[in-house]
């Protein structure tokens, strides 16, 4: 497939009389959109038209942004995530014969000469290239600085006797720590799916799973004094038939009553409670009585509730509606610590549990038990 008759005729006219072409035709020969479209694109991105951008490249090149440099260099349809998406005629993207390539090149050169490109825009392109190179060098230097900073922070963390977050918890000297966990998944004689005895067995298995996963997370993932946290890990499990299928409002009221009556042991969270509903009790992990061996696949989830969420206001920013689903392994490090230090809001926890993928922590010396499991040397 070669040049279309239309483009071939345009190139021939450009060679014969480039000044006789319209501005749109000249741009087409140069592989650019029509002038009005170029201006619209520049105005939308930078608030100035293309000619103003060229003038800026000529007189104030040091003020060009990376994107502005790219546009001066490659065209207004350039996008850094798709550098090949330029506004070139389709014929430029197909295989041309040597004769057609020469025709295209000759037309291109004649239009550039006719538009005085070498005196007007060529210096702007040169300036944009130099500015772009300087920006890339600055970015490389910044990446190097961050890498060196990360290495320093990691080395500092490795020299500490224990991760910072564990030290923070140990400094509090709490006699215990844990969560109140309500059971809302029940079966009655009229239920078809499970008998009460089977549901009770599932509840017992869930309680055992709490301890099994807590032990692995705190003694294997966080082996640098995580076992000392495991020794004081105690939960309050509440199984009451009156809570079968209880609404969030009912559960919050029940928890707040316990809190007001000082029925929650010292150290157990009063700013959050957990719920094991029918879905949690009937999941395959519980049904098959699995033992946790690490990893992120196929783990039970529980719901974590903000007891002070106001149902009358409706969902907050980010669609947080008072509860989140948490993979059980993250209950014992990430959820516990972020509540203890109040370093993340409920909205932020909701964002992470709905938009990010949780992972086991990758380094036992990380100062923060990140939900994603990744600590990149950042300060917390």
UniProtKB/TrEMBL annotation:
Domain of life: Eukaryota
Name of the molecule in the record: Uncharacterized protein
């Amino acid at each position: 497939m070669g040049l279309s008759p239309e483009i071939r005729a345009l190139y021939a006219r450009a060679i014969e009389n480039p000044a006789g072409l319209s501005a749109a035709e000249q741009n087409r020969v140069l592989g650019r959109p029509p002038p009005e479209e170029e201006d619209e694109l520049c105005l939308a991105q930078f608030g100035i038209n293309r000619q103003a951008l060229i003038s800026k490249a000529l007189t104030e090149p040091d003020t060009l942004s990376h994107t502005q440099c790219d546009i001066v260099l490659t065209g207004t349809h350039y996008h850094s995530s798709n550098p090949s998406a330029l506004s070139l005629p389709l014929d430029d993207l197909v295989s041309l014969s040597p004769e057609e390539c020469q025709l295209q090149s000759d037309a291109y050169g004649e239009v550039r000469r006719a538009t005085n490109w070498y005196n007007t825009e060529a210096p702007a392109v040169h300036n944009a290239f130099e500015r772009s190179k300087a920006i890339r060098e600055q970015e490389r230097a910044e990446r190097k600085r961050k890498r060196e900073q990360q290495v320093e922070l990691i080395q500092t963390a490795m020299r500490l006797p224990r991760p910072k977050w564990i030290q923070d918890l140990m400094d509090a000297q709490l006699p215990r720590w844990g969560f109140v966990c309500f059971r809302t998944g029940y079966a009655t004689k009229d239920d078809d799916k499970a008998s009460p005895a089977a549901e009770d067995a599932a509840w017992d298995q869930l309680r055992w799973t709490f301890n099994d996963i807590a032990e692995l997370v705190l003694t294997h993932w966080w082996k640098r004094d995580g076992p000392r946290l495991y020794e004081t890990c105690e939960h309050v499990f509440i199984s009451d038939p009156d809570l079968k299928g209880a609404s969030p409002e009912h559960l919050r009221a029940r928890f707040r009553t316990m809190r007001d009556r000082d029925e929650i042991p010292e150290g157990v969270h009063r700013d959050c409670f957990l719920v094991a509903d029918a879905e949690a009790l009937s999941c395959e992990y519980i049904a098959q009585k699995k033992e946790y061996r690490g990893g992120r696949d196929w783990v039970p989830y529980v719901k974590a509730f903000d007891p002070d969420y106001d149902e009358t206001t409706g969902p907050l920013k980010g669609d947080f509606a008072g509860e989140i689903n948490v993979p059980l392994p993250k209950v014992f490090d990430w959820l516990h610590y972020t509540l203890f230090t109040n370093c993340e809001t409920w909205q932020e926890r909701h964002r992470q549990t709905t938009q990010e993928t949780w992972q086991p922590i990758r380094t036992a010396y990380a100062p923060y038990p990140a939900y994603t499991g990744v600590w990149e040397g950042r300060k917390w």
